[in-house]
Amino acid sequence: MRLIICLAFVGALVAVPVLVSTQQPASPAATSGVSPHARQVHDAAIVIDSHDDTTQRLLSEKGFDLGTRHENGNIDIPRMRDGGLDALFFSIWVPSDITGPPAVKKAMDQIDAVREAVRKHPNDLVIARTAADIRKAAAEHKIAALMGMEGGHMIDDDLGLLRDYASLGVRYLTLTHFKNNNWADSSTDKPAHNGLTPFGKDVVRELNRLGVMVDISHVADKTFYDALEVTKAPVIASHSSCRAIANHPRNMTDDMLRALGKNGGVVMINYEVSFLSEEYRVASEKQNGDVVTALAAMSKKCGGNEACSTLENARINTEAMKSGKLPKVQWEKIIEHIDHAVKMAGIDHVGLGSDFDGATMPLGLEDASKLPKITDALLKKGYSEQDVTKILGGNILRVMEAVERARTQN
Ligand SMILES: [Zn+2]
How far apart are CA 284 and CA 269, in angstroms? Predict the structure, then answer.
């Protein structure tokens, strides 16, 4: 462990040496209330977040640097270090109504933006493609940067393009975003294909062959069951929560959670307040319409700048919670969803998919620096160290390895 010796001068003459470790949380306030034992378990685990929208900031916010600590948003290197985050999937996301070559160009620009951000910070970040890459990065005290593509419309109905994305490092494909595409139905659109079309099933088969994970977050229930029928490898829900607790179509029903467990896959719990709390969801829909409608309206206001849109939306919602205009959603709701998903899918099938920088966070889990609170709460709830380690990242690592094995068998 590297130690930096800082000299703090008291008065003009007395020098007091202060030891600061680069591996320890820089801001103790960030994890206040977390027991030393929980911090130890957290730091020993490989902590993985499967869905972050920070890519939008990289691309559209002039001067945004991952290496600087920010007051707004949820992710940057200092706060990831504070929160002991070892790996994250940067989302490659283009709104559903942008299709064809313009969507492909935007997706390529985002892949480049992620790779360039990693290149700028070689001491902290490294591109990873496999579970082994993530383990290696963690051993070297670097944060592994991976990419997931959020929305099948970006492949422009072309399996060749899907192969190109895979070769550039895309490690999962979310079959749809908020709207249906030409081959799959979305959970937040009117059914058009009765789930997956024959081409949609070919996409799933090609993902299996390439060793790229099939992501069923955002898809219609029928699309989920169709994907499960076709896939030869475990699938993931990169950022979804439980419908039994918050009745939003973006969340998974108990039957879906059980089916995902049987498939060997993993549901990565989303921290968006509308997906965590039924009380908040109902109140906020009454005020602003569904989260999908609210985000579309904000995007228009921001002139299509999606970083502006999500950050502004989160700021307004957080303000409304704090002032009492909307019900307060506390961070412990995340624990409730994790616990429910564990009961339905099994302890080997649940993980963390925050939706940082793409959603409104619950009070108390404002950014990546607060992640050790999840470990502390799960231990206090009676989860064993081994089980907590699975939820923090072990389960998604196992799924990645299974998907990688399925690739070589084809
Ligand atoms: Zn999403």
Answer: 21
Distance 409 CA to ligand 1 centre (A): 31
Active site residue 177: yes
Which of 57, 42, 23, 91 lies closest to 391 in space, CA to CA?
Answer: 42
For 117-130, the pLDDT digits (tens) are: 999 999 999 999 99
Chunked mean pLDDT (size 10), the chain, 410 residues: 36 34 44 91 98 96 95 97 98 96 98 98 98 98 98 98 98 98 98 98 98 98 98 98 98 98 98 98 91 84 89 94 97 98 98 97 97 98 98 98 86
Residue 104 alpha carbon to ligand 1 centre in Å: 18
150 is catalytic: yes
Is 37 a known active-site residue? no
What are the strands, taking DSSP E only, across 83-227? 87-92, 125-127, 143-150, 170-174, 213-215
Rg of the chain over CA atoms, in angstroms? 21
Distant-in-sequence, close-in-space partners of 71: CB < 8 Å, separation ≥ 6: none
How many degrees, rounded to 5, is the angle at CA 346 between CA 343 and CA 351? Answer: 100
Give the Å distance between the CA of 9 and the centre of ligand 1. Answer: 49
Active site residue 355: yes
Give, as one character, the DSSP assignment of residue 212: P
Could you give the dihedral angle defined by the CA atoms of residues 402, 407, 408 and 410, in that order, rounded to the nearest 10 degrees? 120
* Beta-bridge mates of residue 214: 173
In the reported structure, the alpha carbon of residue 313 is separated from the centroid of ligand 1 by a whole-number distance in angstroms of: 15
- Rounded to whole angstroms, the maximal C-alpha distance in the chain is 78
How far does residue 114's CA lie from ligand 1's centre (Å)?
A: 18
* Residues 69, 73, 76, 82, CA torsion sign: positive
In this predicted model, what pLDDT tens digit does every residue of 222-237 receive, in sequence order?
999 999 999 999 999 9
Distances (CA, A) of 172 to 97, 164, 166, 221, 363: 21, 13, 8, 19, 29
22: Cβ–Cβ under 8 A, 6 or more apart, which residues?
1, 2, 3, 4
In sequence order, which ranges of 27-158 are alpha helices (DSSP H)?
36-44, 55-60, 77-82, 100-120, 131-139
The verdict on whether 349 is a catalytic residue reads no
Give the list of residues 6+ apart from residue 44 with CB closer than 8 angstroms, or none.
389
In Å, what is the CA distance from 97 to each residue of 59, 263, 325?
A: 19, 32, 31
Structure tokens at 271: 């921290």
Residue 272 Cα distances to 137, 278, 362, angstroms: 28, 12, 7
314 alpha carbon – ligand 1 mean position (Å): 14
